[in-house]
Amino acid sequence: xxxxxxxxxxxxxxxxxxxxxxxxxxxxxxxxxxxxxxxxxxxxxxxxxxxxxxxxxxxxxxxxxxxxxxxxxxxxxxxxxxxxxxxxxxxxxxxxxxxxxxxxxxxxxxxxxxxxxxxxxxxxxxxxxxxxxxxxxxxxxxxxxxxxxxxxxxxxxxxxxxxxxxxxxxxxxxxxxxxxxxxxxxxxxxxxxxxxxxxxxxxxxxxxxxxxxxxxxxxxxxxxxxxxxxxxxxxxxxxxxxxxxxxxxxxxxxxxxxxxxxxxxx
Length: 266
Hints:
Elements: H1 2-16, H2 18-34, H3 41-56, H4 59-70, E1 83-87, H5 93-99, H6 109-120, E2 125-129, H7 142-152, E3 160-163, H8 169-180, E4 188-193, H9 197-206, E5 212-217, H10 225-229, H11 233-255
Parallel strand pairs: 1-2, 1-4, 2-3, 4-5
Helix pairs in contact: 2-3, 4-11, 8-9
């Protein structure tokens, strides 16, 4: 069942991605117009209108801000930290394999923030969870990239725990819990992108992580005029699609019983 769910999530998302869906509408509309169907202008205009609206309005900010604001980082850092769980999604394993050096993407704070935390808390363990999250991949896992990067940044091997099998957030939570077996009373931090934190917290709670503290990073929204407008169309599209994927994921995970609420709260 897990394999089927994983496969469907990848296959169905490709045509459902807003950018892809808009392009399909434009293509369908143009094909209809070419065949003399005047009503083809409506799907073509709908697809084109999406890109115009994305360029003229901060749609990417509007859909992502509620996700990022759901779980705030604690006002004070815990005095004692037993472990830091870092979710995959910030590394590019295929590029790493092709070029031979660790490659990061726009969520790089997932990888840098834990190192700073680790230096301030010598008692903590650093746990990375991530295997192969794409259908087409090579032989390098996300955990392999994390190990190489953190080794170069001076993280001692005896403080690092790697989970190499997880393909999605549900497997991140369940497989990591089996691996580290957190004990009652321990303080664990969960590090992931702020927009992903609602789904991640809902899943980790459902998987039995009763005492884990959200530590969001990689914020992409802001209230200033510059933050609202200073982004190119490709960047806006990427952020919009990421946010829509999170909203869809929240609904899907709740229907699958992987979260207790559609929009988990603090």
